[in-house]
Design brief:
- It is a single chain.
- This protein is of the alpha/beta class.
- The chain contains ten helices and eight strands.
Length: about 230
């Protein structure tokens, strides 16, 4: 079980920097989504969001919050409105994720809730941080790839970017090399597990991502890099 304390923006940011991974559950069945999120946590994922577009997402967040291993945190994705923030807080969600510059960014930040704000362009990334985002979710990252992220970081070296959208096992290290503090993983991690699919293959993919992140961290520590 997790403890009852909430994660702070600084705590979330530090934890994501350390783990380099955020899981993204989006499916057709909230109960299946909860099982998938918990399975990912059991395999080493510390941060998992459940998209509000998943039917039964709030119940799934409640379930995961109650059963998550110690040191693991559940958030909500596709958080757009003030009402969404209210609903997620009531369900026990510990961080918010948006796909865009939604009103939920300023609302979450004003309540001291960590928020990963979706942005793509330089102006959007700047505005996301101006509204109080904890980090910028570069989405969809696959449009420009690691090269675009590297170019975006040149004028904004202090903005923590999380690459999301089209990032798989073969692409993750490229984004870390380009300066992403983490990658967000939906389909390439969960597949159909959030809609009731077999959890066993998903667990294997989760272990592969965790092993890759651990390997990257050891390698960069040894070379004095990020």
């Amino acid at each position: 079980m997790t403890d009852s304390t909430e994660v702070t923006p600084g705590g979330l940011l530090a934890g994501i920097r350390e783990s380099r991974l955020v899981g993204i559950v989006r499916g057709t069945d909230g109960a299946a989504g909860a099982r998938a999120a918990l399975a990912a946590m059991e395999e080493g994922f510390r941060f998992v969001e459940i998209a509000l577009t998943t039917p039964g997402a709030l119940a799934a967040i409640r379930e995961v919050r109650a059963a998550a291993p110690a040191g693991c945190y559940v958030g909500a994705g596709t958080v757009m409105t003030v009402q969404d923030v209210d609903n997620v807080v009531e369900a026990g969600g510990q961080f918010m994720v948006t796909p865009s510059l939604a009103e939920s960014i300023r609302e979450s930040a004003g309540r001291g809730i960590p928020v990963l704000a979706g942005a793509l362009t330089p102006s959007e990334a700047y505005e996301a941080m101006n509204r109080g985002a904890t980090a910028v979710k570069l989405f969809p990252a696959s449009i420009g790839g690691p090269g675009y992220l590297k170019a975006l970081r040149d004028p904004f070296p202090a903005i923590p970017f999380i690459a999301v959208g089209g990032v798989g096992l073969d692409e993750a290290a490229g984004y870390w090399e380009a300066g992403a503090i983490a990658v967000g993983l939906g389909g390439p991690l969960f597949g159909d597990a959030g809609s009731g699919g077999d959890l066993a293959p998903m667990r294997g993919r989760a272990r592969s991502f965790v092993d890759l992140a651990d390997s990257f961290t050891r390698r960069t520590a040894a070379t004095g890099a990020r």
